[in-house]
Write a structure and sequence with these properties.
Layout (H helix, E strand, L loop, with lengths): L1 H15 L3 E12 L7 H12 L3 H13 L19 H6 L8 H10 L29 H17 L4 E11 L8 E11 L3 H4 L6
Antiparallel strand pairs: 1-2, 2-3
Amino acid sequence: NQAKVQQLINSCMEQSGTCEVTNVVSKEKKQGRPVPLNTVNLLKACSKALGIGPHAAMQTAERLYLSGYLSYPRTESTAYPKSFDIKGTLQSQSGDPRWGDYVSNLLKNGNCKARGGVDMGDHPPITPCRPAGPHELSGDMARVYELVTRHFIASVSQDAVWNNTRVDLSIKALADKGLFTIRGKQLISPGFLAVLLHKEYG
């Protein structure tokens, strides 16, 4: 952020001779962890993050369910029932080389609570039912299992924290047309983003 601001200031000064920073405002803002995964959100995530269409994604999720890897994939609920063992499900994933260290730290330091969501009274949100090593599954089954597992872990992780900065600039030679604003943000605490691989979600 500071490099971009300085670059713009230097450019303005070369062209007009005077550029003034009139205001700088920085605020911390939380990015909330995702709510637990229902069918609609699973299909959207598979399409957006994995490029798997809805029909193929549902077929894959159902195969994973029948093989005992995932909970029932047809549900409208986005809240874990009170009887759901969040810590036990997390513990079963603590040995995975991809996210095991993150899960262990989460169990040690985090509250492991989901946010928001609605229990529709049908089936619970889609979660992993048992661990699957990196080479235990293949193809779309491996990709959908990993997406569901990472989403589950993210849903009971800490929120991410960003520092949002706004810089107001004034080029006096341009009068009213010389007012500019730069906005940027810097990640302070990744929280759930460290496990969700947010870039893959778009």
